[in-house]
């Protein structure tokens, strides 16, 4: 069941990436550094990676986000420290058993003037942790 | 030492102060700060080996011999072909094999490239950038031309021609009366003055300072993205109003950018809401007359450009209120109120004046990305 769910998630994300990839140049924007669609992956090792998409918007007071838009989406809280250009992303999800889990990711934004800027860092969920990297489309 | 050898002597001098060269201001619309070291200058003498008289910026190559006798090729940028025309230089003025002396600003990094501020052709003594260093002659004072209904004409009087150019300022800062030292690209002399420029939200100030510290390397304008917002009124290539009161609109033909144009609707339609509009570089504008002032509201901007020189950020929430007042035949007062609650803590206002260029037509300037890529080393 879990494998099937992951398969569907990967297919959906791949489709989304393909769609975004076609029109990516049209979305280049110079506004708030977090606003936009971010694609990347997370995992516990360099070979164990899972693709993800996070869409973030700035409303003038806070940044709101959604991870993996679609049927498996979940809201994320995003905090940007503009002094150090660090980003904290938090979300509450459910594991394969349906048990609530809290995920905390902290990363550094690089090359912030680039359309395809990146956020990379580490995440942890309970006692499990790993790395992630996001690139804005 | 022969005169030729003297000319062939290369001298590169660094100066500590920022040099304000009006010739540079008249050069290509792209921000020189991004590509050239404004606080240095270079003097070159040598022989022209290649000429590329193209948009958006004309170049020539020259071989320069240094004090050790080593010859090295240099690329010299002389700005848009419209600029040399002011000194009577055409694409046929310069010939391969001509000896020239050049003063300019060296490129950043190891490239042997300079942005010319002075060029002297040894064969004829012809000088470049003489006209652009002189203040533009002011047209004779005359009453503001008016339409039959009494509104000021923003264009020429019937039977005349002309356009608006030579802005008194090429930067936008909040009008507080506080002097903020910066160059014509909007590069602050002191980064700690950022708070004086505009009432930034913290993220916006951080982005602004990042753009300043990185010398505008990510400026979309450098890739020929249109100069939307207030930026097209900062271009050295001017603009022209085409008023069409019979159909309720004013066209703005813009000299900078990519032969861009903008429509201001004066037919009484509402400005609309950005969520109902296709977001664009120039937004959607509606205008109305308040006495002798044309007041233009614009919303519906995208976030793909910088709305002013200097790297001030904005979001799709940007709402500009522009006031155009032709105080006399030769002077257009431009005032813009910036309202973007997602970027600034409150609305703020700045502005400048723009001078009438009589008896001339606006010229074609076309920004072509990578047009000089075969020339730049």
Keywords:
heterodimer, A: 137 residues, alpha+beta, Lipocalin, 8 strands, 16% helix, B: 377 residues, mainly beta, OB fold (Dihydrolipoamide Acetyltransferase, E2P), nine-stranded mixed beta sheet, five-stranded mixed barrel, 7 helices, 10% helix
Outline the secondary-structure elements.
The complex is a heterodimer of chains A (137) and B (377).
Chain A: H1 2-23, E1 36-43, E2 49-58, E3 63-67, E4 74-81, E5 86-94, E6 100-110, E7 118-125, E8 128-136
Antiparallel strand pairs in A: 1-2, 1-8, 2-3, 3-4, 4-5, 5-6, 6-7, 7-8
Chain B: H1 3-7, E1 11-14, H2 22-26, H3 32-35, E2 40-52, E3 58-65, E4 71-79, H4 82-85, E5 99-106, E6 113-121, E7 127-128, H5 130-133, E8 162-167, H6 194-197, H7 202-213, E9 239-244, E10 249-254, E11 261-265, E12 284-290, E13 293-299, E14 319-328, E15 331-339, E16 348-358
Parallel strand pairs in B: 4-6, 11-12
Antiparallel strand pairs in B: 1-2, 2-3, 2-5, 3-4, 5-6, 6-7, 8-16, 9-10, 10-11, 12-13, 13-14, 14-15, 15-16
Provide a concise account of the structure shown:
Chain A is of the alpha+beta class.
The percent range for strand residues of chain A is: over 45%
CATH class of chain A: Mainly Beta
SSE order of chain A, as H and E?
A: HEEEEEEEE
Distance between the termini of chain B: 31 Å
The number of domains of chain B: 2
Q: What characteristic shape of chain B results from the CA principal axes?
A: globular
Tally of DSSP helical segments of chain B: 7
Series of secondary-structure elements of chain B, N-terminal to C-terminal: HEHHEEEHEEEHEHHEEEEEEEE
What percent of residues of chain B are in strands? 25-35%
Tell me the structural class of chain A: alpha+beta
Helix content range of chain B: 10-25%
Q: For the residues shown, what is the average pLDDT of chain A?
A: 83
The percent range for helix content of chain A is 10-25%
Largest interface: A-B, 17 and 25 residues
> Structural class given helices, strands, pairing of chain B?
mainly beta
Strand order of the largest sheet of chain B: 8-16-15-14-13-12-11-10-9
Low-confidence stretches of chain A: 1-27
What is the number of E strands of chain A?
A: 8
